[in-house]
Amino acid sequence: MKWWYIYLLTRCDAINRSLTALSFIALIALVLIIIGYIIWAAVEDELKSEASQQIIAKFKWYIKAIIILMLLTGLLQTIIPSTKEAIAIFAVPEVYSSEVVQQFYDNIVDMLNKRN
Hints:
Layout: H1 3-10, H2 12-43, H3 50-79, H4 83-96, H5 99-115
């Protein structure tokens, strides 16, 4: 196994923590944008004017962008394994297929057969 694979395996938890922080910040931004929109709509007298329609379109675009960002970070958090899972994915097959483990397994089977 190359050294950078081992390094990347150890970074899985850090990547997941970063994605969690990004999701949390996006959620706070979403709440603030919705609150800002509600306050702006309550204060604005004419919601039918051209400028108001442009502002409403920007609010909707921001909300959609943040929701998409939150969905993507949630998907990435689901796909990226933890460090323990990643090491198990890469290391267990290597250990299981090694000759030392096979000999150890054969010795245990022989020992158990001799007892019976």
